[in-house]
Amino acid sequence: MYLKDTPPFTPNNSDEAIMEAEDELYEEDVIEVIDFDPSNAHEDSSDDEGNCTRVEEGIRNVIDEKAVIEISDSDDDDASPINVNAYSRDAEGNKPTRDDASCIFQQHKGSVFCCHLEPKVGNLAVTGAEDDMAFVWKTNSGEIILNCTGHKDSVTCVQFSHDGTYVATGDMSGVVKVWKISSKSQVWETSVGDLTWLKWHHGANVLLGGTISGEVYMWRIPVGDWKLLPGHGSKTDYGLILPDGKRAAVGYEDGSIKIFDMKAATVVHHIPQDQAHTGPITDMDCHSDNNLLISGGVDGHAVVLKTQTGKVGYV
């Protein structure tokens, strides 16, 4: 008697028949059958170890090959071809990892702190690192075209000028250097004390640099003429040149923001501490209309203000 809605058993579907079907199903997946004689298990331990090693290596190779074949047999006609050489084992020889990088630059001998791409074509990159070095190199090959030597501390600021003619490098000791790409030579250098950031003007060869003391230097490159945007004793953490190219916004460690007239080197607006942020400012950006500016800080706030009036619109 069958339970309700339960189909009847299939005739001749004994356990023996099921086992035979399973044997047929998995027979093609068997790589090799090895007869094992327990009586000879300890006769030659060195030979056993060698055989085990060879068997383990064979199994790993089969697994690796099968994984690549399964990926290659995908039904996706648009899939990129699999590069078997792209798979490599980690330090312990375990998981296969894949590296699709077209270029890896490995010339630094310490942590890399900063990087920037040449803005016009993007075929060059500049990197600065803990090893007191900056390099300009080709992004398609990693070939070094310029060694930026002579820094006295970790290089923490690097940036190409707006048209890629120059590249500026700065270190933690305050040494700032400017290099000309076409001649692969240094064209200017200065020292300002502890440096926190560098920023090129987006339409002229003018370079701004912020310091721990709070002053912001503005240099005309390569002649070196300079102006000083005054601070108020608090470290400057971030600087931004507004889209009009005539004003700059500077954020400070105490949470205050200043809008400067760059030509006159005077403060247009000063948004004091606690009115916007209560801690260091980490980032800023300005809308193309030159009016709305947004800033972010470690206090967890994003503040929107109007650069024309200095009034905070949203916190």
TrEMBL record:
Q: Which Pfam families match?
A: ANAPC4_WD40, WD40
* Residues of the signal peptide: none
WD repeats by residue range: 105-147, 148-189
Where does the source fall among the domains of life? Answer: Eukaryota
- Outline the extent of the Anaphase-promoting complex subunit 4-like WD40 domain: 243-276
Q: Which SMART domains match?
A: WD40 (SM00320)
* Keywords noted in UniProt: Repeat, WD repeat
Claim: Repeat is one of the keywords in the record: yes
Is the keyword Cytoplasm assigned to this protein? no
Task: Read off the PANTHER family from this record.
Answer: ANGIO-ASSOCIATED MIGRATORY CELL PROTEIN, MITOCHONDRIAL DIVISION PROTEIN 1-RELATED
User: What is the name listed in the Swiss-Prot or TrEMBL entry for this protein?
Assistant: Anaphase-promoting complex subunit 4-like WD40 domain-containing protein
Q: Which species is this UniProt entry from?
A: Periplaneta americana (American cockroach)
